[in-house]
């Protein structure tokens, strides 16, 4: 059974930091691209960042460049999102996403349950 479990969300003041974790199991994490996607209140999903299986290729949405850092530890089957200099506009539910995982039925994405990040004074 594939599981993606996010943690590390919470309430933080503007300018603060949080580190999100995504613990993965049930699939070949070490050969899977991982991404973080967020959904702000009343808005659609917004892709935030992704990281290739060997960490050689990393991308960010423009609004988080210089503030967020994605990483992964394949030995621990865990992906991370370090978020610094947080802004109120970063308030959202953050989802971990395993991209194009091979299954007997084909290729599919898997999603975690999400973790709430609230940036407010």
Bin the strand percentage. Answer: over 45%
The overall average pLDDT, rounded, is 96
Number of helices: 0
The percentage helix is under 10%
Molecular shape? globular
**Helix vs. strand class:** mainly beta
Can you count the beta strands?
A: 11
Series of secondary-structure elements, N-terminal to C-terminal: EEEEEEEEEEE
Strand and helix layout:
Blueprint lengths: L2 E5 L2 E3 L5 E8 L7 E7 L5 E7 L6 E3 L7 E6 L4 E6 L8 E12 L2 E6 L3 E5 L2
How would you describe the overall organization of this protein?
With 121 residues, the chain is an all-beta fold. It contains no helices and eleven strands. The protein has strands at residues 3-7, 10-12, 18-25, 33-39, 45-51, 58-60, 68-73, 78-83, 92-103, 106-111, 115-119. The strands form two sheets. Strands 2, 4, 5, 6, 9, 10 and 11 form a seven-stranded mixed sheet that branches. Strand 4 and strand 5 (45-51) form a beta hairpin. The protein starts with a strand and ends with a strand.
How would you summarize this macromolecular structure in one to three sentences?
This protein has 121 residues and is mainly β. It contains no helices and 11 strands.
